[in-house]
Amino acid sequence: MTSGFTDARPLQVQVADDVRLKIESGEWPPGHKLPSFDELATAHGCSLAVVRKAVDLLKQQGLIVTMQGSGTFVRDHPIAQLQGIERYSRSLWQSGKTVLVATPRDSIYGKASQEIRALEQVPASKLVADRLRIAVGTPVWARRRTTAVDGRPNQLADSYYELDVVRGTAIMEPDTGPGGGLARLEENGYRLAEVEEELSTRMPTGPESVSLQLPPGTPVLELVRTIYDDTGRAVEVMTSVIAGDTAAFRYRFPIPD
Q: Which residues form a coiled coil (predicted)?
């Protein structure tokens, strides 16, 4: 510490930041067992009460987890990476692969899974109606899924379609078949041309926290995706709520003139 410098941060924040730096630097990798509370208190010259507050902060940040009778460990959670525009490549889903919003960083489409929560006809909300350019309350078809990475839920994805767009297709069935919903839309005569994405952050609702198994204080990313065909018609609107502590984003695109 530089002579004469006074750290104005509360002691528990100083301890938490020191531990966080060790985690982020890789010095303490996922699964690493943290020193005992006594050892942390001695190392930082503080009380056990301060260490407990620091540990609580780190838990709220989703960095560590305490296992009863075993100790406190660096949390091992898979990071899903959003693969920019390339995940919509026609060659991808025409070859039978399913386009998922959040996919594993180390093996694209390799460790992701999804579970159908509901297939149902519902009245269009304002968000959906505005993007499909229909009246609020118009019946639409909803596909509600939960996706997971390495078995941990990381996303709640709900897709909405006008009934005439999906009637008689596998989009109304649990299994959409090779290539997923995008392939079925094209088979039904809709040549997909454009994708619009709207991304924002917020705190989760109670049910979202439970469904995504979120640590306290963890935000979510909300993605609204609209897919248009070559006539400019919006043929799908998807709302996706992604666990903020499991998401990373990668985009590469040409710079417009």
A: none
- Looking at the structure, do residues 60 and 97 belong to the same domain, yes or no? no
Q: Is residue 62 part of a domain?
A: yes
Looking at the domain assignment, is residue 105 inside a domain?
A: yes
CA-to-CA separations, 106 to 66, 187, 244, in angstroms, rounded:
26, 31, 18
68 and 93 fall within a common domain: no
Q: What is the pLDDT of residue 117?
A: 96
Q: 201 and 142 share a domain?
A: yes
> How confident is the model at residue 8, as a pLDDT?
82
Task: Phi first, then psi: give them for residue 131, nearest 5 degrees.
Answer: -80, -30
Q: What is the pLDDT of residue 78?
A: 62
Domain extent for 93: 80-250
The verdict on residue 191 lying in a domain is yes
- What pTM was computed for the model? 0.76
**Statement to judge: residues 69 and 89 lie in one domain:** no
**Kind and range of the H or E run holding 222:** strand 220-229
Whether residues 87 and 63 share a domain: the answer is no
Does 221 reside within a domain? yes
Give the HSE-up count for residue 151: Cα atoms under 13 Å, Cβ half-sphere: 1
pLDDT mean values, one per 10 residues, the chain (257 residues): 67 93 91 94 94 91 83 78 71 69 43 88 98 98 91 92 97 92 93 94 94 86 96 97 83 82
